[in-house]
Amino acid sequence: MVTTEIADKIKRLEEKYAAMGQNLSSYLDGLLYADYLTYWDYIQLDVLLNLQHPRTPIPDENIFIIYHQITELYFKLTLQAIEQISFAPERTATVFTTQLRRINNYFRNLVNSFEIMVDGMDKDQFLQFRMALLPASGFQSGQFRMIEICSTRLPNLVYEPQRPGMENCDLKTVLDNIYWRSGATELATGKKTLTLQQFEKKYMGPFLQLATRYEQSNIQAAYQQLSEADKAIVIPLLKEYDLNINVRWPLMHYKSAVRYLHKKPEDIAATGGTNWQQFLPPKNKRIIFFPELWTEEELNNWGKLAMGE
């Protein structure tokens, strides 16, 4: 029996497909013969469970791979939320709070789950399989660098001593001086590591395009366009965002590196050749997305309290 409700929906479907020059009957045939959707097909479960390709037979390498894959999925969600803030038809406190809460939840989950990496792998197994990963490194997460670029004015991603000279430079020059490039440079020779060379070859072009697109639409710029009343609402969420990405997240990486790579009398080198002792501690790199939201004392102590200093 065709109810009035079903008849109304059929009529609306006919109008929808007619507007596109399509025949509703053909689509109904497709629906009639199509299989029911299953959970495993919808999320591509078989594909997902076959995306791990360890380089060694060491069991804990799977933990390392899967955790990093989960991390990149959270980064993808973060970039989607940033996009919705930066290019919203109308920027309001509601748009900011909805998306910032999502991002902060993503990073809260990432930070809290990092124990999977810090304590969840056998140290001896890690030190065995890590050598098969050369020269790959978590440093090469292009999505995390995209999050940084989309979050703030590009000069804020240059180390402080160089920052004043970057204010009037073009985006490519600023990007050429972005802080993380020195994190994968050999301290003794000043040469770029292979890790950095690979990374730049793949991403520097897309990074410049992204920086251009977000130059006037990054989170910091979007915040500054809000009304004073809306700014007051979103400031706590922005400060949480700043701490999550620039203090808590790198600090968890630092703790993990200390656990696995710290060894007397000389620390073990990272797989990518990064000078992790200087590069990872947030108090050293002092990258801050929204410096205007913090007091002078908070800026001076950036990252130190989190490290127990």
UniProtKB/TrEMBL annotation:
Family annotation (InterPro entries) = Trp/Indoleamine_2_3_dOase-like, Trp_2_3_dOase
Where are the membrane-spanning stretches? Answer: none
Identify a single GO molecular function assigned to this protein. Answer: L-tryptophan 2,3-dioxygenase activity
Q: Does the keyword Acetylation apply?
A: no
The answer to whether UniProt assigns keyword Oxidoreductase to this entry is: yes
Q: Which UniProt keywords apply?
A: Dioxygenase, Oxidoreductase
What are the GO BP annotations of this UniProt entry?
A: L-tryptophan catabolic process to acetyl-CoA; L-tryptophan catabolic process to kynurenine
- Please state what the protein is called: Tryptophan 2,3-dioxygenase
Q: Which organism is it from?
A: Chitinophaga fulva
Query: What lineage does the source organism belong to?
Result: Bacteria, Pseudomonadati, Bacteroidota, Chitinophagia, Chitinophagales
